[in-house]
Amino acid sequence: xxxxxxxxxxxxGVRAYVRKCQAAGESVGIVPTMGALHEGHxxxxxxxxxxxxxxxxxxxxxxxxxxxxEDLASYPRTLEADLNALSGLAVDAVFHPGPEEMxxxxxxxxHVVPSVLDKNLxxxxxxxxxxxxxxxxAKLFNIIPADQAFFGRKDAQQAAILKRxxxxxxxxxRINICPIVREADGLAMSSRNKYLNSDERMQAVALxxxxxxxxxxxxxxxxxxxxxIKVMRDCLAEFVLVQPxxxxxxxxxxxxxxxxxxxxxxxxxxxxxxxxxxxxxxxxNGVTGECEM
Amino acid sequence: xxxxxxxxxxxxGVRAYVRKCQAAGESVGIVPTMGALHEGHxxxxxxxxxxxxxxxxxxxxxxxxxxxxEDLASYPRTLEADLNALSGLAVDAVFHPGPEEMxxxxxxxxHVVPSVLDKNLxxxxxxxxxxxxxxxxAKLFNIIPADQAFFGRKDAQQAAILKRxxxxxxxxxRINICPIVREADGLAMSSRNKYLNSDERMQAVALxxxxxxxxxxxxxxxxxxxxxIKVMRDCLAEFVLVQPxxxxxxxxxxxxxxxxxxxxxxxxxxxxxxxxxxxxxxxxNGVTGECEM
Lengths: 293, 293
Fold this sequence. Notes:
Two copies of one chain form a homodimer. The first copy, chain A, has helices at 11-23, 39-51, 79-87, 99-102, 121-125, 129-143, 156-168, 198-203, 206-219, 225-237, and strands at residues 6-8, 28-33, 54-59, 93-95, 110-114, 148-152, 174-178, 242-251, 265-273, 276-283. Chain A is of the alpha/beta class and 293 residues long. The first copy, chain A, has two domains: 6-178, HUPs (Rossmann fold, 3-Layer(aba) Sandwich), CATH 3.40.50.620; 191-283, Pantoate-beta-alanine ligase, C-terminal domain (Pantoate--beta-alanine Ligase, Chain: A,domain 2), CATH 3.30.1300. In chain A, strands 1-4-3-2-6-7 form a six-stranded parallel β-sheet, with helices on both faces. The longest helix of chain A has 15 residues, at 129-143. The radius of gyration of chain A is 19 Å and the shape is globular. The A-B interface holds A 11, 15, 23, 105, 108-117, 134-135, 138-139, 142-143, 145, 161, 164-165, 167-172 and B 11, 15, 23, 105, 108-117, 134-135, 138-139, 142-143, 145, 161, 164-165, 167-172. Strand 5 of chain A pairs antiparallel with strand 5 (110-114) of chain B.
């Protein structure tokens, strides 16, 4: 019965649509994505449609969060498949601007910058990445003044930074962080999994397996982060196609390295698997198996 | 007939008020100030009440735009006089939060940062100042989702940066830059003029007089910025209580030093006069005597 979401490519159009919805008393959820939608994204969409009366999915491969040596050019752009994937859900609108609509003057000159929370993990190895993320999400929040936003917990550092941004800058929006969705073998879903050939895909299970091993030794009583990290690194080393980038245990509030296992620790890792840089994380000292935000 | 503006000290209260006005079809103007209101501020208020149906004046001495060696502690706080000054105008609400309402966790961790436009003039001599300004104004725009905002042209660099911020981050607000209001002798109105004793007050005319002299030699045909700056510095040097900080001619779009006088040049200067750091600026190559933004 659904006619599918309404597609907007211009800022004025989607903003007018959202304002009209809100003037009619509707609540609006926004799900910011870079497209190449997978089941992880769709879980965010379902969370939004359950919590609000109108859901807007944004699809924009944001150039300013890629460094020059990263995969901006090859990042999958699959608009038709994305719209098909959304057509079965109760999505009301898709905002799919071109770069020139979002950055008419080239990159923004005024940026939103995390001064903390970005000094470790992805923030450390991808300088400028979270500046690009914060800036584009601030722009999206201003373009689409939604009541709630939905982000995935796979990008735990991003989620924490954006939650903090909304708080610190008083964006009138509720930030929801939703659980990681995994493949049957444990691989966290990611648009970049598309880059993997079949051998790489099989070995990509290394990330979630290393996290699970770390969690297990902590459950068995290990208190030293260095020892847990060694267990995780040893696990990754069994996979010849996997090149670890960082393997860390951090405090979940600050994203600073934790020397000993505390009540709010997050294990997080990044690795290159063939052409794909993949990340994953897991709460290692709790009963839920997922971090709370 | 006016009962005076409604006073809000909390974010939720003023936000609900503004949303209620907008839901009723009203347009809202915001005039962000640090209080100690003078005729310059009141001109912004009049511009707002003329252009919108509801005007909110914010009064908040923002600690994060002061460096440790600046005058945060002594900056004049004159709420009662400010409310009296506003009572004769058609101001609907005043937002006067405490620092703990605006920064409940201490300073914000996520900042809005100008990456350009701040490398000269006040941005050069007051590191972090415009980061503090942009961050607090972004917060205010999110707290009070006004349709229009009004800033004074005396703070030309601030005005240009905030206009650029609204543009780059897609704040759905129109930024209006209003003319400098001057005392009879030419001194630009400023809350910091209160710091001046009578001798200092008399000599403070040096700033506007130097700008006028620079404008005159340009009108007489001078094309070299260095020569014009020397004329302005020589003028300032006649006033023994005036210690120049910067004396510059900049391109108005970029705030970069202009070597020769072009069609969009701004002369800007800062000087210490007794306990007061004062600034002023003037369009030096146009017929209006004031810059356009």
